[in-house]
Design goal:
By secondary structure, the protein is α+β, with helices and mostly antiparallel strands. It folds into two domains: about 120 residues, D-amino Acid Aminotransferase, Chain A, domain 1, CATH 3.30.470.10; about 160 residues, D-amino Acid Aminotransferase, subunit A, domain 2 (D-amino Acid Aminotransferase, Chain A, domain 2). Helices cover about 30% and strands about 30% of the residues. Strands 8, 9, 10, 11, 12, 13, 14, 15 and 16 form a nine-stranded mixed β-sheet that branches. Strands 1, 2, 3, 4, 5, 6, 7 and 17 form an eight-stranded antiparallel β-sheet that branches. α6 links the parallel β12 and β13. α6 crosses α8. The radius of gyration is 19 Å and the shape is globular. The relative contact order is 0.15. Bound molecules: 4'-deoxy-4'-aminopyridoxal-5'-phosphate. The site of 4'-deoxy-4'-aminopyridoxal-5'-phosphate (PMP) has 14 residues, from α6 and β14. The site of 4'-deoxy-4'-aminopyridoxal-5'-phosphate has 14 residues, from α6 and β14.
Amino acid sequence: MKPTKTIWFDGKLVPWDDAKIHVLTHALHYGYAIFEGIRCNTTSNGPAIFRLSEHIDRLISGAKTYRMRLPYSRELLMGACLDLVRENGLEQCYIRPIVFSSFGELGVNPLQNPITGAIACWEWGAYLGDEGMEKGIRCAVSSWARIDARILPPQAKCSANYANSALAKMDAISAGYDEAILLTLDGHVAEGSGENIFMVRNGEVFTPTLDAGILAGITRSSVIQIARDNGIPVQEKNFTRDELFVADEVFFTGTAANVVPIREVDGRVIGSGHYPVTKMLQTVYLDAIHGKVEKYKPWLSYVR
Ligand code: PMP
């Protein structure tokens, strides 16, 4: 990670090296933190943050679910993201806001502790690699099930959820794959460790419903809209892993990952090895985030 000049830390811009917390920070021990992953991309009008308001709204909803009393307004958080990117002089970056229960009592109950927020940004390329974006990645279905709504709220982007994601991701990488696909407790396809999943069959696009315990991905909703706007039918519907094996195309979506073809699942090559629908959606999505599609310009918040 390449350091930038400043990090927004509890309302102030502080030097990168000074954004530090105590080892007895409550969230470090119990995962009581809500975060976001946002991207800022180059456009012909300078850097622009993609769907900033949707990301901040998801952060605020997650905080509400966890009874977190945020000391910052929606407007303040949105403004802080824009100020931070501008201050750091970045043209393109990943932005990571986090709110967490900080220093106070160390019992499990976080309600007595203050909530602290931080926002950092840094340059970060394609999460699953440029080659993955082009040629597709290899995935394995994980033996770890995706967290269920009876265990942890899947819609809240809570740090605790990512212990589940990290177990799946580590096992996939250790077995020589690029990414894991997690199933629900009842065996339906849920999502990747940090991406939503889609499959294409006979020209139609399918993606699991939100009640499969998936995160309501902002890239997911953008890609659903892009597909429908381009005359491709999309159905939110749950399916099993064997349907992935025989799909024509399978792909992931996510802020970090963008739109990435999946070329192999559990050793089965997907489709013919060509991904026309995925590639079209990837192209339009990349054009949209770079401000090249008039219709999707309302999704951008310009930094300057
Ligand atoms: N699922 C999980 C578990 C994730 O962590 C992410 C990344 N935020 C996604 C899906 C994709 O969501 P988004 O498109 O909003 O980045």
